[in-house]
Every structure is written in structure tokens, then in C-alpha cells.
Amino acid sequence: MWTWQTKRISLVLLPLSRATFLWRKSFKWPRSLLPSTSKSIMAAAGVPVVEGYHGEDQSDQCLKEQAARIGYPVMIKAVRGGGGKGMRIARFEKEFQEQLESARREAKKSFNDDAMLIEKFVDTPRHVEVQVFGDHYGNAVYLFERDCSVQRRHQKIIEEAPGPGIKPEVRKKLGEAAVRAAKAVNYVGAGTVEFIMDSKHNFYFMEMNTRLQVEHPVTEMITGTDLVEWQLKVGIFFLLNISLESMLPSGLRKGSITLDKGSILAGCDEDRKMGG
């Protein structure tokens, strides 16, 4: 039955459904993108990447030769890996084969794919992720970094923003690199560009999380933003010719924000004892 109430509801829902549709359509990062491809894109965009081998030849001999070329210690990583699975460190040539076989077994079991990549191992690393946000008009901004180096079994326990001990000039370079990464794939919406950082504050691209991460409130607290609101606005702003710039607080817009506060998120990890 058609009534004026029905018509009113339809008129309200139509813009929202269009915004949702456009939001999904705007997703630019291919879900099937492998690390070898993503790192090639990042390198071409001027984003630092760790020296490594991401080739198609997966023979043990080839991987061993590439490890020797890169120089030990090296990280052996499953191409389709995640959550720390299929990762092993080979500190010396004599242990490479054993670690490779172990990584292959775990990768095959976890991902049904034992393809590996070899990268230079960054000793005493920090895990730093940069919050980025892009709109439909090619604009992208960074909202500073979160340090998530405190981990257990490659799972984050502590998230801290801004990253402690990171100098302003390094922070700026980190953010600019993250923006280049986002723009290289025409990224739209909230995303996180993850870097590994060495003791000298050199940083290298690891991966990009193409979603609004659960840790995003840490960033919201130091920037005064509401990233969930931004997600909704981006879909609506696709219809209005308004760029991301208008959504930023004035301090961020002018690039003069002062990070005079910090935020920490702590996770709780529960273990079960076997047999009692």
C-alpha cells in the first residue's frame, strides 16, 4: 500500500543507499594484491621498501641464493601470510634450509600456499602504522602514527599515539610516505599504512590495512577527529563536490597541529593452560 509515509521513507533511504553503493564502488586496493606487487607499486611511488626477493622462482636453491645476495639475517615470509604465520628468521646460511622448510609447512597448512618471499631482517624493529584517509577527488591526508611494537605472537597488545621518541622530521617523512602510498592506489576512506622502523629511525613499507582498524580511537583522541563520521561523509561528499580538506580541523588543514597529548590502547590476551 502506497502512502505519503512510504514515499517519505523512500526519499530518505535513497540518498543513503546511493552513498553506500558509491562507497563500496570506491574501494581501490585489490584484495588479491600480493606483497610482491604491492611493494613494487610502493617503490615506484617513492615509498621506502625493504630489500628483498619477491620473484616467481620458488625453488629452494633460488631462495637460498637470494638470501645470500640480500645478506643475513633474512626474514622468510609466506606470500599470502598474515598474523605472523609462515614467518621465520634465518640469521645464518647454515639454518636457512631448516627455517625455509618450517615456514613452508606452516604456510601450506594455514593458507594452502607455500610460496615465500625473502627480505632483509630488520633487527630490533619498531612496528609503526600511519592512519591515512582519502577522498574521491585524489586528496589524502595522514593523521599521524601509532606505535604498536609491543606484541605477543605477532598480535598487537599496546597501541600508542603519537609514537614515542619519533622526531618531528621523521614523523613528517612517515606521514608523507603514507600519503604517497594511499595516492598510488587512489585510496578512498580510512586506511592504515604499516611500516617497520629500525633503531636509526629508517622506515620501510610492510603492508596496508584497507579498513578502519579497531585501534582508530587512539588516533581520534590526539587529533580531535571522528573517523567513523568521516567514513560516512566521504560517501555523501562524493555527490557534493566537497573535498576532504573541508573535513579537517583547522590545525590539521594548516599543517600546524601541535601534538601535546598522547593516547594508549591496551589489549588483553587470554591463554588457556593445557591439561589443567
Automatic annotation (TrEMBL):
GO MF, any single term: methylcrotonoyl-CoA carboxylase activity
> Gene3D superfamilies from the xrefs?
ATP-grasp fold, A domain, ATP-grasp fold, B domain
The reply to whether Ligase figures as a keyword in the UniProt entry is yes
Name all ATP-grasp domain ranges.
39-236
Signal peptide range in chain numbering? 1-19
Q: What cofactors does this protein use?
A: biotin
**Matching Pfam families:** CPSase_L_D2 (PF02786)
This protein's GO CC annotations: mitochondrion
Enumerate the InterPro entries for this protein: ATP-grasp (IPR011761), ATP_grasp_subdomain_1 (IPR013815), Biotin_carboxylase_complex (IPR050856), CPAse_ATP-bd (IPR005479)
Q: What is this protein called?
A: Methylcrotonoyl-CoA carboxylase 1
